[in-house]
Protein: Phenylalanine--tRNA ligase alpha subunit
Amino acid sequence: MQERLLELQEEALQKVAAASELKELNEVRVSYLGKKGPITEVLRGMGKLSAEERPKIGALANDVREAIASKIEEKQKALETAAVNAKLATETIDVTLPGRPVNKGNLHPLTRVVEEIEDLFIGMGYTVAEGPEVESDYYNFEALNLPKSHPARDMQDSFYITDEILMRTHTSPVQARTMEKHKGQGPVKIICPGKVYRRDNDDATHSHQFQQIEGLVIDENISMSDLKGTLDVFAKKVFGQDREIRLRPSFFPFTEPSVEVDISCKICGGKGCSVCKQTGWIEVLGGGIVHPNVLEMAGFDSKKYSGFAFGIGVERIAMLKYGVDDIRHFYTNDVRFLKQFHHHEA
Structure:
């Protein structure tokens, strides 16, 4: 029985050494160390042995089992390591190869202009207000001193959905809604960025959809000088510290008096060139003192409160700031155009 155990050990160790795959090694384990293996079969005959021989054979059987199991474990680790090394050899990476370039996106020029203007006015104590793009006729026109059949409505050819619902033609409805929420109590100090819609024929300077940022300040003793000072800060921040502004009389139904605001031409320094049409000035936005009717309709006492409002065309500012000659470039998603603004990143 002792000789048989030693023979089985030698036989098993030879098969372990010859195994070249984990599957073969596992078959050796089951074959020799399993419940139905030859070692177990030998031990079943221990009942025929004398009391003195049984402990010796039992100890030998355990030694044989441990020797075979140890060699199997050792061979298993070797085969697993070899498998990993073989896999790594087929999946090598040449670290000397140049990396693939990753295209980095950047802010759209219109987004950059909006954020720059928002940062400026937030720093001056304004809050950002928003409202729906699908608007009621009341907030879009009537609450802004534009009753039905008012001739000034023709200035903003509109996309009507029903007789009383339309795509907003300016962001002024946000001002009307905000004033209404204040229930006649000032101060109010907001800017209203957003998309607006008008039935324009798209060309180099017009679009049926564009962006505006309107501003509104309501408090006691607000005057035209407050508006001029605010817009002077705006012009210098966006276009450069050497820019100057001028105000020209104009007409808007929701402000009285109303003004058009020009900045001095950056190209010629105010001397006159083709860009400014030899005037030395470029029109950038409109504004004025809030009409008393607008204040009263929103619940403010026009004898106690006054205010100013202004409207900025984002595309207009971006075209002047970056020298873009066609508004359609902003909306065609031409990567060649957008890539030009990488160098403008902060």
User: Anything to note?
Assistant: The radius of gyration is 42 Å.
